[in-house]
Specification:
Blueprint: H1 11-27, H2 40-49, H3 55-68, H4 72-75, H5 80-87, H6 93-111, H7 119-122, H8 130-141, H9 151-159, H10 168-178, H11 184-197, H12 220-225
Length: 226
């Protein structure tokens, strides 16, 4: 098996990463999660639904989901068919419904209905991987466990030269080495907002990008030649 490429520790890259962080803070001073939620349970469920789906679509579905099943106890008793009918538009609705119900049952049976607050416990829940766990820990509990790597973070981190890998776990490791730990949580939120507003897939708006002078635009020429 080919091991993911990892960037060596580089002080110049760390300095550039800090410049990127400062500019993202200025451009997006409020670093909020794009998934609507009112509790750790709601955020966990919404993040499970967000796989291969836009946050906008998830936010349209979750009000009804949480109206019907507002806590793990109630969701654990839901039928597969009922949950599928509510989340159908998010895609992969059968596996997502099974994961939501399984997640709720595991929380009720193994954690007395309380959402776990450790990475080790969270990734044992159905439908929860490292990315979902990092989202929950960082956003709901303020616990800095890692850097969330979604499609925007993966794509833009390569443009910025902060990673050379396509492997989300390796990208996370590169970012954790490069970024100050206190910025891990907010960096992802801001980069996601940046990816939706300016560094748009297939048509990045480089001319108005606040990161332009610190971005090597790694791989951008290949994107534009496709």
């Amino acid at each position: 098996m080919t091991r993911p490429r990892q960037l060596p520790i580089d002080e110049d890259r760390k300095i550039r990463a800090r410049q990127i962080v400062r500019r993202l803070k200025k451009g997006y001073p409020v670093a909020l999660c794009a998934l609507d939620h009112r509790s750790p349970f709601e955020l966990l469920a919404a993040t499970i639904l967000s796989a291969q789906c836009t946050d906008v679509r998830v936010n349209k579905v979750t009000p009804e989901l949480f109206r019907l099943w507002p806590n793990p106890h109630m969701l654990s008793q839901a039928t597969q068919t009922a949950v599928e009918s509510v989340i159908h538009s998010t895609g992969f609705f059968r596996s997502k419904a099974a994961n939501l119900i399984g997640m709720a049952r595991s929380i009720v049976e193994n954690h007395d209905g309380d959402i776990p607050q450790t990475l080790v416990e969270l990734v044992k829940l159905p439908g929860v991987g490292r990315k979902t766990a990092n989202v929950l820990l960082g956003t709901a509990f303020g616990i800095t466990s890692g850097v969330v790597v979604d499609t925007h973070v993966k794509r833009i981190s390569k443009f910025l030269g902060l990673t050379v890998s396509d492997n989300p776990e390796q990208i996370e490791q590169d970012l954790m080495i490069t970024l100050p730990k206190k910025e891990w949580i907010s960096f992802s939120h801001r980069l996601i907002h940046h990816g939706r507003k300016i560094c748009i897939a297939r048509r990045p708006q480089c001319g108005c990008c606040p990161l332009l002078t610190v971005c090597p635009r790694t791989g951008l020429s290949e994107l534009r030649s496709e």
